[in-house]
Design brief:
By secondary structure, this protein is of the alpha+beta class. The chain is built from seven helices and 13 strands. The longest helix has 16 residues. It is globular, with a radius of gyration of 18 Å.
Length: about 250
């Protein structure tokens, strides 16, 4: 398969794989605006020429929107191959392209979020282990940081202290999220409205800068939902999932 690197020059015209193609859709416009601000920070978005969910997104770890310390590593935001594109070696193509690019740029290795067991929207630990990654740090909520060092002298990445013990103050639901995930632009307001209509305490914190994201009280910043101070899930909610979560009908 052939691949396309999305840049500011072709961003407006390229399909970004994980949301519908209409640029007028708030999900697409939100994601593309977020990407446009990251390319100058070294973000790479490589995708298949075929329409579908087949892409890798990565950037220098010091510019990652996550509370990690990983000097000279490359951080993988997302490696996603799904649907009919699975099983053809495309994830290997994308990962190998990332490795080659990272080596050429003098990076010391790769890092990515995962967990002991597969969780939605996080890398599969079995796949990572198969590709030579190993777990190098873990937060109290089970979110793990995995790495693939390029040399024996590469110091393992670590979570920042603010993310090691995920917790927030106050009662009710608190959501931390970024615009990295396009679905948030559509579904966070829906969940906010649903909570308001039912009188459920709910507060959404939109992390709008790298500095805010790197100081977040959670390793996962694309979507991290807390209840009464305790971490619940990184799985995006629509109104039906949220109602099921809170036990409402």
């Amino acid at each position: 398969m052939d691949y396309i690197r999305v840049t500011n020059e072709n961003l407006e015209h390229e399909h970004i794989c994980c949301a519908i193609s209409n640029n007028r859709d708030v999900q697409v416009s939100s994601k593309k605006a977020w990407l446009a601000g990251r390319f100058d920070e070294g973000l790479v978005f490589l995708k298949s020429v075929e329409r579908g969910k087949c892409f890798i997104e990565y950037l220098p770890a010091e510019n990652a929107w996550n509370p990690i310390d990983a000097p000279s590593y490359m951080y993988i935001d997302c490696l996603w191959v799904s649907g009919s594109l699975k099983g053809h070696g495309y994830s290997t193509d994308l990962l190998e392209a990332c490795i080659a690019d990272s080596r050429e740029k003098g990076r010391r290795g790769l890092c990515i979020l995962s967990a002991a067991k597969k969780r939605p929207f996080l890398a599969d630990p079995k796949y990572l282990r198969h590709k030579g990654f190993s777990m190098c740090d873990e937060a109290d909520n089970g979110i793990q940081l995995w790495h693939l060092p390029f040399g024996a002298d590469a110091e393992p990445p670590r979570f920042r202290e603010c993310a090691r013990h995920p917790h927030v103050d106050g009662e009710g639901y608190v959501l931390f999220y970024t615009s990295q995930c396009p679905f948030n632009a559509k579904y966070v307001p829906i969940v906010e409205r649903t909570a308001t209509e039912l009188g459920i305490p709910f507060r959404a914190v939109h992390l709008q800068s790298r500095e805010e994201a790197q100081g977040a009280p959670t390793p996962v910043t694309t979507y991290a939902l807390f209840r009464d101070g305790e971490y619940l899930t990184n799985e995006q909610m629509n109104d039906k999932r949220f109602l099921k979560l809170v036990g409402a009908r």
